[in-house]
TrEMBL record:
Main location: membrane
Family: Belongs to the TVP38/TMEM64 family.
Organismal lineage: Bacteria, Bacillati, Actinomycetota, Actinomycetes, Pseudonocardiales
Alphabetical UniProt keywords: Cell membrane, Membrane, Transmembrane, Transmembrane helix
Residue ranges of domain VTT in the record: 66-182
Transmembrane segments: 7-27, 47-64, 71-91, 162-180, 186-208
The keyword Transmembrane helix belongs to this UniProt entry's keyword annotation: yes
Keyword Transmembrane helix: yes
Signal sequence segment: none
Membrane protein topology class: Multi-pass membrane protein
Protein name according to UniProt: TVP38/TMEM64 family membrane protein
Compartments where found: Cell membrane
InterPro entries: TMEM64, VTT_dom
Amino acid sequence: MSYETGVRWKWIPAVVLGFVLLSWIVFEALDLIDFDGVVTWVRGIDPMWAAAAIFALLVVDVLLPVPSTPLIVLAGTALGLPLGLALAVVGSLGSSAAGYALGRFAGPLLVRRVVTIEELTEMRRWGRQFGPWFFGVARGIPMMAETVSVSAGVSRVSFRQFMSYTLIGTLPICAAYVFAGSKADTVEQIVMISAVGFLLTVGLFYLLRRLVKAAP
């Protein structure tokens, strides 16, 4: 799900990290979750159910604020590297395709519930600066990927071109997260992988945004 550009982006890392830390403290203090057994439980889930749930959540990410990074990490934890990577890539591409279809075929009122006019304008500036490679870069940046997908549909970019460059950006991101998730043995490691990945991609967003603003 997209967010208005500007001030909200500045608070996203703090809000996410604050929520994670607060939840961790509360659950630990009240002993509500057996953290030592969570990873074992995740790996014991029926692979078909785990794959279906992760795939569905990745696809609806275009409409709902679903955290895709932890889902991709969990795909590696629950399903291992080959199957987890395939699922993460297909689910991510499914989300991108759904966003593109929404932007291209839905009415303006529905589209504006997902992205704002200001976001569409900014996405066009990014496109002029980076060309079609922008679709690949955006795939790894939380919440920006959905905005870019819808914007590509609104702008009637070639679907083949959009999906090709999105795949180029999706593969390495998913491979890194899934591999890390497959090696994680504790909940702490899963949380750290997700948090570090999130902060790195948000940092990349700020760097690229400065380049876009500085461009003539």
